[in-house]
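Handout, section 3.2

Students often ask what a structure token actually looks like in practice. Rather than define it abstractly, here is a full record for Tetratricopeptide repeat protein. The first block is the sequence as you would receive it.
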Amino acid sequence: MKSKLKYNLLSIIVFLSATSFVQAQQNKEVLIDTLIRRANRLGMFNGNVLVAEGGKIIYKAAVGYADASKTTKLTTAYRFHIGSIAKEFNAVGIMMLQQQGKLKLDDKLSKYLPELPSWADSIRIINLLQYTSGLPDVKWKTVKSDADNMADLMKIKQLNSEPGKKYNYNNNNVFLQRRVIEKITGISFKQFVEDYELKPLGMNTAVIDPTEKDPLIARAYDNKGNTDPFFNPISGWTAVTLDDFYAWANAITKFKLITPQTTREIINGVSANRQSGLGGGSMSGDKMISHIHDGTSRNYQALLVSKVPEGVTIILMTNNKQGNLYAISRSIEAILKGKPYAQIKKSFTDEFRAKIDSLNGAQIIAFYNDVKAKHADEYSFDGEDTLNQLGYYLMGDKRLADAITVFEYNTKLFPKSGNVFDSLGEAYYNQGNKPLALLNYKKSLQLDPTNDNAKKIIAELDK
């Protein structure tokens, strides 16, 4: 009688544990869905979402419309352009050829494309993967085809910098990776990706360089209802569904196409906070820890976040860019961990860009505080990110003095954040003010001893 009672109690405990687990998963799904649909109602997200935990998909949804007319609702069968994340297909392709012994990363570019000017003799394949070739960017305003871009490359007489010395994230590195793949394999880049990457992974609905004739392609549009032009000046861009994207994410983290050793070559950038062939991430030995990559193409935007030990994958794709995919991803991660999370709000920088362009640094801070006091429920003022984004926008516009004003104000608001001092240090470094750059990088490292980027800059400046 005793043993039967024990068995019944054990069964009840197992049943209750299983029920609690299912309820917890269902609760996460409800919270994620509420987050996404609230963002959609505010005009802050229109697109498709996939979330996996423990290696299993727990949430998959299409929210919003397929184009600017807002008459056709999105479904999970729609394909989206994923911007720079599509560069992974050429980076992985290069590494597949390396594994096959068909190229070496130290090979000179001229070995495969001898028709290029003499500067190709100083660029190595690894430089293309790490965006350190010294090449200028594609002339987006005039280039209309691959042939146009190759013609521009043929006219270059001198590189912008010595290969391997300076990081410059641009698409001529990507363009030439694709041409190298074509020269080695004897087939088009499109066919290579289809035959050796998409088909083996079961990515049967992915399409390279879709046209207006292709069905189920989400059309990108801006907040004024203007539809993006369909074509890309240079070719080789893969559009995917959620299921395609998830298959690709798993292929990277599970090393289905390239080995852990080969993956390590393109998961790490030339230095901290620099893009690599796979965007960014980390490994421990032969195990993947994380893989994170974002991409933008006009009003298309996509984000992939894989946290491998937890079996977490977050995929976000939108055809109406709002610049908030990382914020959405962070909130989803918090939900998965059972922690408090932030609702999605409008971006201060994106919403008031025209106004910001007309103000100096001090005026921007005053305007920021005025909006924060009156509209905190509508715009995002959570944490240090808002001012950090604003500072980088100003720095990208070569307004270094104004960027420094914003970053300095951010350090006063968040004096215990190593990240804000790192940003301020970077602004002073770009301005050429090495003493203040060094001071702020040292402060950043003091607050965040894991900041490897600060360590490298400090070592450079101390010399």
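Discussion prompt for tutorial groups: Residues 83-336 form a domain with the Beta-lactamase fold (CATH 3.40.710.10). How would you have guessed this from the sequence alone?
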